[in-house]
Design goal:
This protein has 252 residues and is of the alpha/beta class. It contains 7 helices and 7 strands; from the N terminus they run βαβαβαβαβαβααβ. The longest helix is centred in the middle third of the chain and has 28 residues.
């Protein structure tokens, strides 16, 4: 199996893309630490799928917007499963806010979870890998096609643009330790996120129709397959890259 003997930590893995990535990594052979925040039953369902694949599952409740909780999650992963060879910084929020109504608290809340957490998660995971003298690792961040800009999403677009720059800088900093850092930038994906406080099903159907490849929303499993590639040695010469998995909706 491509990831046999590996340990993965996936943030925001109780649902959506994070859940699909956790299950896909387990299917490829990794033991998986599953970070969740507010839905224990959903997280337990993901853990059950990981175990059904014959892998170990560790449930970690934690708020990635708080650095001490990030450090605690990584420490518990090391204790229970071993230093994480794979970190997927998937946790993210997208509360839509019109620009002229945005408050400092809106900005800080979103940037803490979407951007700060990815940086400090990478730091904690890299330190654990280096301390364990593992031969290398893979950090996968989640960006977004929203780096193009989004109405009612200035803070979100800024966070995802930050992920792009963060990914490249982390890749340079961690290359001497053979730790690769890449990002996946999905477009419209069939999860709760594009629906939450955003738009009607009619508008989602219109957006789907504009996707060049098939006119269909992406599935979390499609994103997860890309994550497995980036986590595996199949991508051992790939670092500092942003993989746009978007059905052709955005071609940078």
């Amino acid at each position: 199996m491509r990831l046999e003997g590996k340990v993965a930590l996936v943030t925001g893995a109780q649902q959506g893309i994070g859940a699909a990535i956790a299950v896909a990594l387990a299917g490829a052979g990794a033991d998986v630490a599953i970070n969740w925040f507010d839905d224990q039953k959903a997280a337990e369902a993901v853990a059950a799928k990981v175990k059904a694949a014959g892998r170990k599952a560790l449930l970690l409740k934690g708020d990635v917007g708080r650095v001490p909780e990030i450090d605690a999650m990584v420490a518990e992963t090391v204790k229970q499963l071993g230093a994480p060879d794979i970190l997927v910084n998937n946790a993210g929020v997208y509360p839509r806010v019109p620009l002229l109504e945005m408050k400092e608290s809106d900005w800080d809340f979103l940037l803490d979870i979407n951007l700060k957490a990815a940086c400090f998660g990478a730091i904690a995971a890299a330190k654990a890998l280096i301390a364990a003298k593992k031969p290398g690792g893979s950090i996968i961040n989640l960006s977004s096609a929203a780096i193009r800009g989004a109405v009612r999403g200035v803070h979100y677009s800024a966070s995802k643009g930050g992920i792009v720059s963060l990914t490249r800088s982390l890749a340079l900093e961690l290359a001497p330790y053979n730790i690769r850092v890449n990002a996946i930038a999905p477009s419209l994906t069939d999860t709760a996120q594009p629906r939450f406080g955003n738009t009607t099903e009619e508008l989602i159907e219109m957006a789907k129709a504009n996707l060049p490849l098939g006119g269909k929303m992406l599935t979390p499993e499609q994103i997860a397959r890309t994550a497995v590639f980036l986590a595996s040695d199949d991508s051992d010469a790939t670092t500092g890259q942003i993989l746009h998995v978007n059905g052709g909706s955005y071609m940078p």
